Amino acid sequence: MEKIRIAIVGLGNCASSLIQGIYYYRDKTPESAIGLMHWEIGGYKPSDIEVVAAFDIDKRKVGKDVNEAIFALPNCTTVFCPNLPPSGVKVSMGKVLDGFSEHMREYEEKYTFVLSEEPEPGEEEVIAILKKSKAEMLLNYLPVGSEEATRFYARCALKAGIGFINNMPVFIASDPTWANQFAQAGLPIIGDDIKAQLGATITHRTLTDLFRKRGVKLERTYQLNTGGNTDFLNMLNRHRLKSKKISKTEAVQAVAGIRLDPENIHISPSDYVPWQKDNKVCFLRMEGKLFGDVPMNLELRLSVEDSSNSAGCAIDAIRLLKLALQRGIKGPLYGPSAYLMKHPPKQFTDEEAFNLVEKFIASGFNEV
């Protein structure tokens, strides 16, 4: 198979897990490959993905080989595929804009970004790098709250004529104006805000759907998350959380049947605990009433490695977008976005989204 040529914005923990996974599965077989939702998509295996361009703003990563940069601080995710060969691709300086929150300067360098002194590129320079690399798509891994920076890179993808996978909670694929721009340019897009393979959101959605199907009235629920990576440190600035809270809350409300009043649903990162590193702990509580109006409640604690959990979805998103490029499908990919993202252009139940993805793989079906 030809390689799927990808560019990445933000070589943090999520990108590290994704790139490690590309190499990890190279010597695996369908029988020995643990942790994949799809071994092949349209004939493409994980090892058919190749990083051809990357952007970051940390001085410990800019100018380094991609396969070296993904292990640099402040990355702290589990290393499950060490000693990667050089990729031959150097990390380019990215555009900062609002991709860095000032409060992070107060923390030790091992926990936070250290801004590079390299000159920031303009739009034309980024587009030139994307074109020269022959990237087919751009993956956005910018920090939560990077509204301006995400739009900057979305424009660059449009002008470079490549697809876009928006893994962050800035609304691009789910914004009709942006979605229409990609459709008019003849380019596919998947977004917004990537789910984990089996994380807090998908677990909360599944249980909410179970309440509905079993006739239990859900009255109140919360989902509190703690972690020790730069994502959680970044989100201590509550002003950056608006779209993240909308995205995570809507993902649960969409399967509730009867929507909860805002005061009865609370979903949010709750705190940064440095020693947790990339481990994310979710505390979930659901209160409801069942037969005879009798009250019940459910409490759950979920502990997962945050970044490898999301990489399990990203590795499918890349291959699904490749199929769209091959088939000339443009604009938002509805089934894949609903299956892989928290805030897609159109919400479906997880079972419906799964079936739509299988239909998309088989025939290119992309209707709502």
What does this structure look like?
- With 368 residues, the protein is of the alpha/beta class.
- The protein starts with a strand and ends in a 5-residue tail after the last helix.
- Helix 1 links the parallel strand 1 (4-9) and strand 2 (49-56).
- The chain is globular, with a radius of gyration of 20 Å.
- A 7-stranded parallel sheet has the order 3-2-1-4-5-6-11, with helices on both faces. Strands 8-7-9-10 form a 4-stranded mixed sheet.
- It has helices at 13-24, 66-69, 123-133, 147-160, 176-184, 200-213, 230-234, 242-253, 306-327, 334-340, 350-363; strands at 4-9, 49-56, 91-93, 137-140, 163-166, 188-191, 217-227, 265-272, 279-290, 294-305, 331-332.
- Helices cover 34% and strands 20% of the residues.
Task: Write a compact overview of the structure shown.
With 368 residues, this protein is an alpha/beta fold. The protein has eleven helices and eleven strands.
